[in-house]
Amino acid sequence: MNKEVRIPTGISGLDRVIEGGVRDNTTLLVVGSSGTGKSTFAMQYLTYGLEHGENALYISMEEPPEQIMREARMLGFNLDKYYEKELFFFHSKGKDFVKLVDEQLPALVEANKNYSVKTRVVIDPLTPLIWSVNDKQEQREIITKLFYTMKQLGPVLITTEEHAAPGETIGEDVLIPIYMSDGAVHLTYRPIGGAFNRALEIVKMRATRHGEEVYPYIFVRGIGVVVRTTPLISAEDMRKYDDLFDQAIRTAADLGANETVLERLAYVKENWSYPFSPKETLQIFFESQGFTDALTREEIARRKEESMPSDVQLDIGELSANGSAEITEDIPEEKNADAEEEGLIEIDDLRELEEMIQ
After folding, report:
1. Most buried among 95, 254, 294, 338, by the most CB within 10 A?
2. Where is this region: Disordered (predicted)?
């Protein structure tokens, strides 16, 4: 199966932890309080598209085009040369925005159907719309229509200002757009070393393996936002746990796991992107399926001999009462003590389990 093509955001460092970029025809929401650099993210995203042969649409409900381009120049982005050629603006306020969503944007989408050039869209910010509609249901309907319409043009980046109450991770006022978007990035001020520095977290990114850490970022004139990240896992290390997964799959099959369980294990193998071993994760999964350290040699032999149907569930309570010979009995005593203390067997034991079955 071919890997889905990703569209780079142009935001330095961010693409490294979202599999190379965003998917086409999706919405990426950038959420943050005032001063976190949301507009800089938007300008950088839009500029990258223009510099790589795309068209761009900038929808603003606060600043006119002249002010946006002036601010872009201060950051080192020259949007003037693209103005009204590849770059177009919609400047809308208040109730006009509802008309924009209902009439003007659908007409633009229809007019662009015959063009092969991709259009990168920025809505900066969405906040006035959120504040102008008090009814949550109406707010959701307008945002849904806006997102659906814009995604037909190309990848969309939307900024939204949040006003989180003390103790809140994410403000309540942005929950609807976060829920409706395909991806969401949260920008915050964080105290690091006594100073307030900016940091980025990826709240969600549908159909994408993404970083789950907190990433500091800085502003560099001429470049824009630079997110300080490292790859989740190198290309060389991507498949280093394959043997462990294969061992687990073989063991699960010998223990009578059905096709669904085996397919799930294979899927986890293909999508494991963490830099640490999957041992504990596999152990917990085995326990959830009834393959625990309470399995006796006799039970394993019986199941193999009788070829138990895959839809027969194992009664863990019954197994626990069956005898004392557990699959960890040949492991050195010190290791057994650790396993009992943690309530887990080491995945290293899977090889011994295979040998018992054979």
Report:
1. 294
2. 322-342
CA dist., res. 320 & res. 326, Å (int): 9
CATH H-level, domain 14-227: superfamily? P-loop containing nucleotide triphosphate hydrolases (3.40.50.300)
How do residues 227-254 score in pLDDT, each as one tens digit? Answer: 988 655 565 676 888 999 999 999 888 8
Q: Tell me the CA distances in angstroms from 33 to 96, 161, 170, 232, one per residue in order.
A: 25, 5, 10, 27
Q: Which of 7, 121, 11, 106 is nearest to 56 (CA)?
A: 121
Q: Is pLDDT of 129 > 70?
A: yes
**Cα 36 from Cα 225, distance rounded (Å):** 11
Do 251 and 353 form a contact (C-beta atoms < 8 A)? yes
Any idea which residue has 């259009």 for tokens? 119
Q: Give the tokens for residue 355.
A: 């040998």
Phi, psi of 231 (to 5 degrees): -60, 145
Give the DSSP H or E segment for 159.
strand 156-161
What pTM was estimated for this model as a whole?
A: 0.69
> Using CA atoms, how far apart are residues 168 and 217, in angstroms rounded to an integer?
22
How far apart (Å, rounded) are the C-alpha atoms in residues 177 and 174?
6
Among 131, 108, 127, smallest CA distance to 119 is for: 108
Q: Domain residues of the chain, as ranges?
A: 14-227, 242-357
| Model pLDDT for residues 42-84, shown as the tens digit of each residue | 999 999 999 999 999 999 988 899 999 999 999 889 999 999 9
| CB-based contacts of 317, cutoff 8 Å, min separation 6 | none
